[in-house]
Amino acid sequence: MRLRHKPWAREKIEAHPQYVILQPEEQKGRWKEAFQNDHPIYIEVGTGKGQFVTEMAKAHPDVNFIGIEVYESVMVTALDRLIEAELPNLKLLNVDAENLTDYFEKGEVSRVYLNFSDPWPKKRHAKRRLTYKTFLKRYEDIMPASGEIHFKTDNQGLFEFSLMSFSEYGMLLKFVSLDLHNSDFEGNIMTEYEEKFSAKGQRIYRAEAAFRS
Ligand code: SAM
């Protein structure tokens, strides 16, 4: 993703504490209070400009969503969408997913979405992939025993790596599609990257993997 420096982004984020949780460590174990209900919480790690998580929150009002994005200059677009949509069931976090366990207790998150995660194709960068085993451990540490990861990508190499990583971690593969847009999967909500790549004729891969209890 091309990053543009937006000096005003931090100020805008800080002006909307009802949407962007500014001290997420303080929320650990208390997310129900932030949403004022005990609906399940689904997070998207690497939410980018927020199209997917915003549309998911509109489509599923009985689920609470949290979009996590490390770059404030990118997340500010997700914030604009949220300000426009005024959704009570969506919050944003401007943090690095490396530190997820600082923000969530075991069992607090019911599902993790990973959409078009950066592929980091060089072998020496494998540890940065969001499906690398150390990230799987972080997701496992914040989900209940049978928590699920739902993953989409256009990148065949990352998809193959991720299926191996899920499997080697002992996860159960519940759904695998090598061509999502020509499959019978219903209710797909497209991300920005998904729209861009599928318009160019690229196929979309999708998998659901569950931790075993
Ligand atoms: N999910 C969006 C989509 O499908 O359109 C954006 C995809 S973009 C290729 C990946 C995003 O993940 C980028 O915005 C990047 O900054 C974010 N990201 C990568 N590593 C991250 C991390 N460790 N923590 C939080 N966000 C991360």
UniProtKB/TrEMBL annotation:
<feature type="binding site">
    <location>
        <position position="154"/>
    </location>
    <ligand>
        <name>substrate</name>
    </ligand>
</feature>
<dbReference type="InterPro" id="IPR055361">
    <property type="entry name" value="tRNA_methyltr_TrmB_bact"/>
</dbReference>
<keyword id="KW-0489">Methyltransferase</keyword>
<feature type="binding site">
    <location>
        <position position="69"/>
    </location>
    <ligand>
        <name>S-adenosyl-L-methionine</name>
    </ligand>
</feature>
<dbReference type="InterPro" id="IPR029063">
    <property type="entry name" value="SAM-dependent_MTases_sf"/>
</dbReference>
<dbReference type="GO" id="GO:0043527">
    <property type="term" value="C:tRNA methyltransferase complex"/>
</dbReference>
<comment type="function">
    <text>Catalyzes the formation of N(7)-methylguanine at position 46 (m7G46) in tRNA.</text>
</comment>
<comment type="similarity">
    <text>Belongs to the class I-like SAM-binding methyltransferase superfamily. TrmB family.</text>
</comment>
<feature type="binding site">
    <location>
        <position position="44"/>
    </location>
    <ligand>
        <name>S-adenosyl-L-methionine</name>
    </ligand>
</feature>
<protein>
    <recommendedName>
        <fullName>tRNA (guanine-N(7)-)-methyltransferase</fullName>
        <ecNumber>2.1.1.33</ecNumber>
    </recommendedName>
</protein>
<dbReference type="InterPro" id="IPR003358">
    <property type="entry name" value="tRNA_(Gua-N-7)_MeTrfase_Trmb"/>
</dbReference>
<keyword id="KW-0808">Transferase</keyword>
<feature type="binding site">
    <location>
        <begin position="191"/>
        <end position="194"/>
    </location>
    <ligand>
        <name>substrate</name>
    </ligand>
</feature>
<dbReference type="GO" id="GO:0008176">
    <property type="term" value="F:tRNA (guanine(46)-N7)-methyltransferase activity"/>
</dbReference>
<keyword id="KW-0819">tRNA processing</keyword>
<dbReference type="Pfam" id="PF02390">
    <property type="entry name" value="Methyltransf_4"/>
</dbReference>
<comment type="pathway">
    <text>tRNA modification; N(7)-methylguanine-tRNA biosynthesis.</text>
</comment>
<feature type="binding site">
    <location>
        <position position="96"/>
    </location>
    <ligand>
        <name>S-adenosyl-L-methionine</name>
    </ligand>
</feature>
<keyword id="KW-0949">S-adenosyl-L-methionine</keyword>
<feature type="binding site">
    <location>
        <position position="122"/>
    </location>
    <ligand>
        <name>substrate</name>
    </ligand>
</feature>
<feature type="binding site">
    <location>
        <position position="118"/>
    </location>
    <ligand>
        <name>S-adenosyl-L-methionine</name>
    </ligand>
</feature>
